[in-house]
Design goal:
Blueprint lengths: L3 H15 L3 E3 H17 L8 H5 L9 E3 L2 H18 L17 E5 L7 E5 L2 E5 L5 H5 L3 H15 L1 H4 L3
Antiparallel strand pairs: 1-2, 3-4, 4-5
Helix pairs in contact: 1-2, 1-4
């Protein structure tokens, strides 16, 4: 369990960056480091860090980075993840299965021509986003990837059940 003080500190960092138009690279690296630590202790948040990592491409920690709408969406997801944690409710329980036992992979793209896909032990499924879906819904990439995961699980639930 992550100490309550750490969770509230992380929430404050997230709110600070979300409310800013720009932040220093050093501030963004501090936030992504905290999120990465939290993801190691409580799995489930890694897909929602990728846009924040995009801002770390500058080497000088004093440079300022624009906080994009994609970054703000990822931060919003994190704030929703952390809300129950701050009140003491469980974040996510994970049953770990060795990677050698299950070969289950998913991916999604914001490119409507590429869409999403899922693979399980030689079988695969894929699909494209409906015309205008990406632009109309403006979802974070993490949610698109979650869609691919859910479709994969529903497609092969009979093979995954009890594992």
């Amino acid at each position: 369990m992550i100490p309550w003080v750490k969770v509230t500190s992380l929430i404050q960092k997230l709110l600070h960056v979300k409310s800013s138009k720009t932040v220093r690279v050093k501030t963004l690296k501090s936030l992504t480091g905290s999120l990465n630590f939290y993801s190691q202790a409580k799995p489930g948040g890694c897909p929602f860090i990728c846009h924040l990592y995009d801002g770390e491409k500058y080497y000088n920690p004093k440079h300022h980075v624009n906080i994009t709408s994609e970054m703000k969406k990822d931060i919003s997801v994190w704030l929703k993840f952390l809300e129950p944690q701050a009140t003491g409710a469980p974040f996510l329980d994970i049953l770990e299965v060795p990677g050698s036992d299950i070969q289950f992979f998913t991916d999604a793209s914001r490119d409507p021509a590429l869409g999403w896909g899922a693979y399980l032990a030689g079988a695969w499924t894929q699909g494209r986003w409906p015309p205008g879906f990406i632009d109309d819904h403006d979802l974070p990439t993490g949610w698109l990837e979650l869609y691919a995961l859910v479709v994969g699980v529903l497609t092969w639930e009979h093979l995954l059940s009890g594992r």
